[in-house]
């Protein structure tokens, strides 16, 4: 009887261990996004999913590590924050470490404990990257092409610059009152339409972050921006009176391109009055009444290095929305 009891005891323990070993923590997200960049939330939220063959599996505790070096985080060693053992089955988990630095990539990993006290392996490492964090970190100025919001054609903007060293990483941070299309060296950046989303522009303006590392080349480069009216400069009349909105003005934008070189140095290419602007072939655009495009006005190569076009002039400084 005692031998049978011991056999059952050890078999139960072995099966418990086996079940724990088959538990896997997957689908790590920060702020509900996969490896996001440009996070400004000072206390970002972490979520994950659990894969287990055990029916009704319950997480009883977790350990979470955050650091700026990937290898130590993979084994649960975070040089920025370690949660310690937290007895909780609740997610999301809110970051509770030191203040996040701007323009920094943080790696994180998680492991969980089951009801029997068995720990899973550490998850695969995920990351998030902080953005501006503070408004004072912006270097770019708000620019436009005219102060007359009744002008119909959508404006082009371009800026040529030169990189003299190997580029390690490059990020574009762009805030726009209106809509925009962004290009680097003639290639469209991003696959979204209607960015940024609508806000009360006189109270809050959103920005979007892009990884443009692969789009830059050593030597001459060009950034191109096409601005549209969106909800900011509603030129069509309608029952909601957006054409009389208190924030209404000619579309404008602010941008920083932050380049990190392989030697650790950084450089920021920012919007200012040295940017060039001209009318585009988009002769009219409206959220309500569509876009009118005149192909006769196209300027091939306007967003490529070495372009020399007629009628381009310096951008105009303007106030924030």
Secondary structure blueprint with pairings:
Blueprint: H1 2-21, E1 24-30, E2 37-39, E3 45-51, E4 61-67, H2 70-74, E5 81-82, E6 93-94, E7 105-113, E8 126-130, E9 143-144, E10 155-163, E11 167-177, E12 179-184, E13 187-188, E14 207-211, E15 219-228, E16 252-261, E17 266-270, E18 276-279, E19 282-286, E20 290-293, E21 313-314, E22 316-317
Parallel strand pairs: 2-8
Antiparallel strand pairs: 1-3, 3-6, 4-5, 4-7, 7-8, 9-22, 10-15, 10-18, 11-14, 11-16, 12-13, 12-15, 16-17, 18-21, 19-20
Short summary:
The chain is built from 2 helices and 22 strands. With 321 residues, the protein is mostly beta strands.
Overall SS class: mainly beta
Shape: elongated
Tally of individual domains = 2
Low-confidence stretches: 4-21
In the CATH scheme, the class of the largest domain would be Mainly Beta
- Rg over CA atoms, rounded to whole Å, is 26 Å
CATH homology superfamily of the largest domain: Galactose-binding domain-like
Percent helix among the residues? under 10%
- CATH second-level architecture of the largest domain: Sandwich
